[in-house]
Amino acid sequence: MTSKSTIPRTFLISSRKDPAGTLIHEELCMILKNEPGIAPYIRHLYSDERLIFLNGPSIPGDSDRIIFLSRHASERPRPVMTVHVTGNFGPADYGGTPHTLTPAASELMHALLNGLVRYAPEGYEVMYEATHHGPTDIPLPSCFIEIGSSSIEWNDRGGARAVAMTVRDALVNDTSTVIRMAGFGGTHYAQRQTEISKLTRGGFGHIMPTRDIQYLTEKMFLEVISCSQAQAIFVDGKAMSGKEERMISGFAEKYAIPVLGQGDLIRLKQLPFSDYLKIRNLVLKDAPGCSCIVHDLPHCYEPVICTIPDDLLQEVMKTAPDEFIQTLGPLPIVHLTGKGKACHSMFITDKKYSLGLSDQLISLCLTLIQDRYACSFEGDTLIIKKTRFDPKKAQRLGISPGPLYSELMAGKSILVGESMVYPDMVMTETEHRIMISQRQI
């Protein structure tokens, strides 16, 4: 929870023309009466105008952020609670100015969305909405929190109180670990972005749905990033054409904006995003085209590279790939993937954890390989002996392809005519040598 000295000053705004916003505001005021430590940081505005047509310059700018308390309406009504920021990617069909976005309170929106998940009464869905209406001339970072989609929900005092409790908690939540995101692709009800924010520290500001990508230019891309204060973007590639995805990825690459998926954000755990950027910059320099998979790395103030013999890694990735990746889980490292490889022989960690880490990784590889094959050492050379079924040897012994092959490969002896054939009679032994410094073992 944020300390009193750092509670942001918040403007709560509702419209007298909006029954839902009025009810939420009323419930919130009742809650705040019992919160004397919070009340000094809150200002209230009751507008006579619908919020989507609100005149931004009429809003005093002596706060840090704005929460609009509002109703949600839909052509196909259903009980929902939503969070979104305002603006228009294209025409201004519902207030505001065309092709104009407002500053988003992205961290606050993350707190509100997850608060609604906790407090929403049974039967309500909780989700982000894409950016889609005014007002646009807003002087402060802001967002809407809404209840809908019909008069039943607008007048639901239990639902309004749930929204009010959500706002109350968000007013004092510590949002310092939220990763500010912008989203591209998907439907109006941003299901993928909602799921990401429920599961990770990724908090969305502006979300451009697939229908509005027609309005995306380089200038608009930069405005989305700027108004969201986005540290990274999410691209729902499955919801758009390949051409559209390449355009967005191209803008992101040009301006060095990381593109993160849900898995990336989950794996970041509590790693500070500034540390992640240090790691990413190192990867861009030394392993361009690769992606970072973060394991149990709590921080990375000074990223360093650890390597293991590439042919040793290739061997373990052929022998036990899933087990090897699983063993990386509790280690304070980042492994790299991409360019046709699930794991590269270059790893990244913080300098604090680097001592002995290469040795530990090599030991993990050796353990997995030795569990499956006969291994020995000659000086610095690891010798791996493998036996495999040789169909040519079997054919020379008069054994035709079929079920008998399977029995021999399973280690069973078979009778061919009057002769017994043992599995080792149809096996071929190969030897693979890998140079490993004894210091690394």
UniProtKB/TrEMBL annotation:
Its EC number is 3.1.1.96. The gene is dtdA. It holds the Pfam family tRNA_deacylase. Its cofactor is Zn(2+). It comes from Methanospirillum purgamenti. This is D-aminoacyl-tRNA deacylase. Binds 2 Zn(2+) ions per subunit. InterPro entries: Deacylase_DtdA_archaea, DtdA. It catalyses: glycyl-tRNA(Ala) + H2O = tRNA(Ala) + glycine + H(+); a D-aminoacyl-tRNA + H2O = a tRNA + a D-alpha-amino acid + H(+). SUPFAM superfamilies: AF0625-like. The keyword Hydrolase applies. It comes from the Archaea. D-aminoacyl-tRNA deacylase with broad substrate specificity. By recycling D-aminoacyl-tRNA to D-amino acids and free tRNA molecules, this enzyme counteracts the toxicity associated with the formation of D-aminoacyl-tRNA entities in vivo. Keywords: Hydrolase, Metal-binding, Zinc. Belongs to the DtdA deacylase family. Monomer. GO terms for molecular function: D-aminoacyl-tRNA deacylase activity; zinc ion binding. One of its GO terms (biological process) is D-amino acid catabolic process.
